[in-house]
Amino acid sequence: MADTAGKFAEEKMPFNFFKKVPKIELHAHINGSISAETIEKLIKRKSDKVKENCLVSKWQTTIQKGDKRDLDECLTMFGIIYQLVDDTDAVFLVTKSVIEDFEQDNVKYLELRSTPRANPETGMTKQLYVDAVLAAIEEAKKTAPNIIVRFILAINRKLGPDDALDTVHLAIQYKEKAKGIVVGLDLSGDPSTQDSNNFVAALKLARENGLKLALHIAEVPDLKEARVLLNLIPDRIGHGTCIHPENGGAEDLVNIVEEHSIPIELCLTSNVKTKTVPSYADHHMSYWYNKQHPCIVCTDDKGVFSTTLSEEYSVMARTFNLTEEQVWNLSFMSIDHIFEGEALKNYLKELWKKEKGKVMFLDN
Q1: Is 340 a catalytic residue?
Q2: Looking at 219, 311, 312, 340, which residue is catalytic?
Q3: Contact, 33 vs 104, CB < 8 A?
Q4: Which residues of the chain are modeled with pLDDT < 70?
Q5: I need a labelling partner for 193 at 20 to 30 A (CA). Which of 9, 94, 104, 229 fits?
C-alpha cells in the first residue's frame, strides 16, 4: 500500500502494459461514459438546434483528475447530461462513441447499461430509446469491429416501482427481439429515494424471464437495503462498497456473497471521486481480493470520472502492488462473469490465451 510499492509497480508495469491487456467491462453506464470530445459535440448540436448558446459546459459533466464530489452531486451531473441526450439521434451518437472509445482501450467485451427514457418534447419514447441504443451497437460493428457489445436495461430507483415494471417488460420484449443483445437488468440510481422492497417484484419477474441481474448494492451503508437485494441472490453486485462490517455492513451480508460466489463489479476511481471510500488504499477491493473472491475491475462512468479501464487496472496494480500475472488473471477471470453462454466465454478465453504471449513480460 505504501507509495514506494506503488512506484515499484509503476516502474515494473508501464502504462503501455495495461493498454495491451485485453479487457472486459461489465459496469459502464452509457450516459456517464461519454468522452469530453463527444460532450462538446452534443453541446454544439444543442446550440445549433435551439439557435442560441447552450448553457451547459463540459466541465459541468466531468470530474477532473484530483477532484471529488459527493454522490448527490454526481447524480445531479447526470441530470445535466440528460439535457444533452434528449432525443434518439443523441442516444445513437453517444452509444456509438462510447463503444468506439472502449474498443480503443482494448476492451474486447462490453456490457453497457442505461435507463430507457422518454422525452415528449422530442418524440422519444422508451422503446425508441432502446431502439437507438441497439442501432448504435449494430452500427458499431463496422466502426469498432474488435469489441463484442451487450446491453443491460437499468431501473432507476427514483422513478419508482411502476416504472421499474415498465422497464422489465421492455427488457423481456427486447430480449427476444434483439436476438441476444439484451442480456440483463440493472437496479441503480439514488439509493435513498425508495425502499428496495418496492422493486423485488420487478426483479423477480426479470429473472423468471431469463434476464440476469446486476444490481447496485450497498453503495452507502444501509443494512436493510443490502439484505433485501442480496436475498435475491443477484448474478453480480455493483460496487458492494458497504457489505463488510468495516465499511458499515455485516457478517451475514458477507456470508451471502461468499456462499453464492456473487462477483463484485469494482469501480475504484468512481468510489474515490464520489467519496464513498476515502482513498484508493482504503478501497474494499483489497478485502474481497484477499479472500480470493470474484472481482471485476470496471469504470462505472469513465466520462464523468475522467478515467479509462486501462487506468483503473493501472491504479489497482499500483495501489495493491500486484504482479503482471495477477493483473492478467483478474482480466482473464472476468470472462466467467459475463452475461453470456459458454460458447462465447470459451471464444474469449481462447482469444486471451493467444494475446497473452504478446503482452506478458514486455520489455517496455
Answers
A1: no
A2: 219
A3: no
A4: 1-12, 48-79, 361-364
A5: 94
